[in-house]
Specification:
By secondary structure, the protein is of the alpha/beta class. The chain has one domain (about 50-170). The protein contains three helices and eleven strands, in the order αββββββββαβαββ. The strands form four sheets. Strands 4-3-2-9-10 form a five-stranded mixed sheet, covered by helices on one side. A two-stranded parallel sheet has the order 1-11.
């Protein structure tokens, strides 16, 4: 009788290579996964327009112009009013109160935005990084039923307060 030889090697499973592979895959997935954190104020008096834009939002000062108020970074700056529409008798238009304006400029909004610009400049200088430097960007959320005159006054005021780059916030259409 011939006995079969069995090799009794005492080899353990070496998983170092497998762990390296999983680490590389994990790092790749974490680097390629990105989220864009931007808050859109959910409100009954703000209905954003729909667009097919492909650009991703960037973090900036958030300016919301709803049907009844203007809000900067979550703080209400002033309330809007209605006035009779001269072109359509019996209809009303949303407008900035006349006592809140100097020409085209909305004074309370200008003061608030100028304060935000100064804060952003101070933060940029304190950090010493070009990433945090003030770029004059503003995220503009406007109700789609607002008259252009109100949006023009808001944009003019923002421009006077050193915010010259506008990013309009819209809902992305899925079509």
């Amino acid at each position: 009788m011939v006995k079969a030889r069995r090799s009794h090697s005492n080899e353990d499973l070496n998983i170092t290579s497998m762990m390296d592979m999983f680490t590389i895959i994990l790092v790749f997935l974490l680097k390629s996964y990105s989220t864009e954190d931007i808050s859109v104020a959910a409100s009954s008096d703000l209905e954003l327009p729909v667009s097919t834009t492909q650009k991703k939002p960037e973090l900036a000062v958030n300016l919301v112009v709803a049907k009844s108020r203007i809000v900067v970074d979550g703080v209400e700056v002033l309330s809007l009013t209605t006035k009779p529409d001269e072109d359509n008798p019996g209809q009303a238009l949303i407008a900035v109160p006349e006592d809140e304006k100097k020409g085209q400029m909305i004074t309370k909004l200008y003061d608030r935005l100028l304060e935000k610009a100064e804060q952003a400049k101070a933060l940029g200088e304190a950090s010493g990084s070009s990433e945090h430097e003030f770029k004059g960007q503003i995220l503009l959320q406007c109700d789609k039923t607002l008259p252009f005159a109100v949006i023009r006054e808001v944009m003019y005021t923002a421009g006077q307060a050193q915010f010259g780059e506008f990013r309009f916030v819209v809902y992305k259409s899925e079509g």
